[in-house]
Amino acid sequence: MQLDLREIFAAFMVLFAIIDIPGSIPIIIDIKSKSGDIKSAKVTFVSFVLLCAFLFIGTPLLGVFGVDISSFAIAGSFIIFLIAMEMILGIELFKQDSHESGSVFPIAFPLIAGAGSITTILSLKAEYQTLNIFIALVLNMGVIYLVLRLSSFFERVLGKSGLKILKKFFGVILLSIAIKLFLTNTGITLLNGR
Fold it and tell me: Which of 5, 69, 120, 139 gets the highest tally of CB atoms within 10 A of its CB?
């Protein structure tokens, strides 16, 4: 395992875009108004544990089903592509029940540690060192904690139009990531198949 700042930064940006905590501020504020105070530390911890579990035991789990990381990354690229289209076009492809009370559900799961972020964690393992992904994940959890603590402040500062711009910007980044993941891992799968 080798520490690589470029990999840490790249993995951080990918996870930051897929988790899309700034774009989730309106949902978080809606849940907060219905269920009372959101326990920022608890939500962050549960999200971190879920994502770490997939980072460290996701590959052996896939092995049980006879699926390799490259194949999973290709499948993941389709999910990331669809999430990007949601963000860019403002449509809803994945239904999320975001109106129930509680801090852990639905904020920690599925809003933060949902299908997209779990798929991304496993897909990143096809390209980056586990240590670098772990550091990127820890940094993302720090950002998530801060955003949860300061959600009302961010809403006042950015406003509705600011949040929409952020969402579309990260949607374009995700679209590029999905295409790169697909092309890279299609090549690996074809080479392994020969």
Answer: 120
**What's the predicted TM-score (pTM) here?**
0.73
- Burial class, 107, CB count within 10 angstroms (exposed 0-12 / middle 13-18 / buried 19+): buried
Confidence of residue 193 (pLDDT cuts 50, 70, 90): low
> Whole-angstrom Cα distance, residue 14 to residue 132?
13
| Burial degree of 77 (CB within 10 A; 0-12, 13-18, 19+) | buried
Q: How far is CA 137 from CA 14, 48, 115, 184, in A?
A: 10, 8, 16, 22
Q: In whole angstroms, what separates CA 81 from the centre of its chain?
A: 13
Within 13 A of 37's CA, how many CA atoms are on the CB side? Answer: 5
At 143, is the secondary structure helix, strand, or coil? helix
Going from N- to C-terminal start, the domains of the chain cover 5-193
Q: What are the pLDDT digits (tens) for 80-116?
A: 788 788 878 888 776 554 444 456 777 888 789 877 7
* Residue with the two structure tokens 């592509």: 81
